[in-house]
From TrEMBL:
<dbReference type="InterPro" id="IPR023395">
    <property type="entry name" value="MCP_dom_sf"/>
</dbReference>
<feature type="repeat" description="Solcar">
    <location>
        <begin position="171"/>
        <end position="256"/>
    </location>
</feature>
<dbReference type="GO" id="GO:0016020">
    <property type="term" value="C:membrane"/>
</dbReference>
<feature type="repeat" description="Solcar">
    <location>
        <begin position="73"/>
        <end position="161"/>
    </location>
</feature>
<comment type="similarity">
    <text>Belongs to the mitochondrial carrier (TC 2.A.29) family.</text>
</comment>
<keyword id="KW-0812">Transmembrane</keyword>
<keyword id="KW-0813">Transport</keyword>
<protein>
    <submittedName>
        <fullName>Mitochondrial dicarboxylate transporter</fullName>
    </submittedName>
</protein>
<dbReference type="InterPro" id="IPR018108">
    <property type="entry name" value="MCP_transmembrane"/>
</dbReference>
<dbReference type="Pfam" id="PF00153">
    <property type="entry name" value="Mito_carr"/>
</dbReference>
<keyword id="KW-0472">Membrane</keyword>
<feature type="repeat" description="Solcar">
    <location>
        <begin position="1"/>
        <end position="62"/>
    </location>
</feature>
<keyword id="KW-1133">Transmembrane helix</keyword>
<dbReference type="InterPro" id="IPR050391">
    <property type="entry name" value="Mito_Metabolite_Transporter"/>
</dbReference>
<keyword id="KW-0677">Repeat</keyword>
Length: 265
């Protein structure tokens, strides 16, 4: 899904459907084509997600009320801190990820042909300088802030609303699935324009777009508002199950931690 999202976002010109893209990748590259950039995607998730969730949870502890609850504003502030930290740390792997996933759509003479994520990072520094690792860092941080704020914060807010408003159990798997799906829907929509601009910037040589605002404006003027939401469908279907599994796992880990802490006391 991530590869399909990147291919759709980097495509300029007439509309390309998801089904036609899937078939084209299979015809040109076969099954392995769907896994282009896998090593970069793994490193990107390991660095980005670990940092943003870790910083988010630590920030929530600082903003927690005396009764142990966290206000929506505090959740948003924690999301901003976590998203910014994750965006910065995960940027090098993200640049490699975008380039490796998009390589197969380029003419053979324009392909970078990175062997793996480490080869990509080394070659970027050697051929383009250290700054290339942080190509698109501003839109990546912006996306990270919006993604973390909308995904994690909306999850907490939706969960509290389902518990207090609908009387659902905070430990119920249904509550966790519902809250995480709502969070995925909101975060996919709010981050889409930034995500498209980020992908275009990372895939470029660094000279096509002056900054995030220029990238968004250029895409809007040349391709219309719909271009800012390219890749929304694969983005959502990638993020929704990811969010559901992630938050269910986090809830289980929290429950184990609370039980052990209670026994210790």
């Amino acid at each position: 899904m991530d590869l399909l999202k990147v291919r759709l976002q980097t495509h300029v010109g007439s509309h390309t459907s998801l089904s036609s893209l899937i078939l084209r990748i299979y015809k040109q590259q076969g099954i392995p084509g769907y896994y282009s950039g896998l090593s970069a995607a793994v490193l990107r998730q390991a660095s980005y997600s670990t940092i943003r969730f870790g910083v988010y949870e630590e920030a929530k502890k600082l903003f927690r009320r005396p009764d142990g609850t966290v206000s929506p504003l505090s959740a948003i502030m924690s999301g901003i801190l976590g998203g910014a930290a994750g965006g910065i740390v995960g940027n090098p792997a993200d640049v490699a990820n975008v380039r490796m996933q998009n390589d197969g759509s380029l003419p053979s003479h324009l392909r970078r042909n990175y062997k793996n994520v480490f080869d990509a990072l080394i070659r970027m520094v050697r051929e383009e300088g250290l700054r290339s690792l942080f190509n698109g860092v501003i839109p990546n941080v912006t996306r990270g802030v919006i993604m973390t704020t909308s995904q994690i914060s909306v999850y907490d807010i939706a969960k509290d609303a389902m518990v207090s408003g609908l009387g659902m159990s905070p430990a119920s798997t249904i509550t966790h699935i519902g809250s995480s799906t709502i969070a995925a829907l909101v975060s996919t929509t709010t981050t889409s324009p930034i995500d498209v601009a980020k992908t275009r910037i990372m895939n470029s040589s660094g000279k096509e777009y002056r900054n995030l605002g220029h990238a968004v404006a250029t895409i809007y003027k040349s391709e219309g508002v719909s271009a800012l939401f390219k890749g929304w469908v694969p983005s959502f279907f990638r993020l929704a199950p990811h969010s559901v599994l992630l938050f269910i796992l986090l809830e289980q880990l929290k429950a184990v931690y609370i039980r052990k802490h209670s026994y210790a006391v």
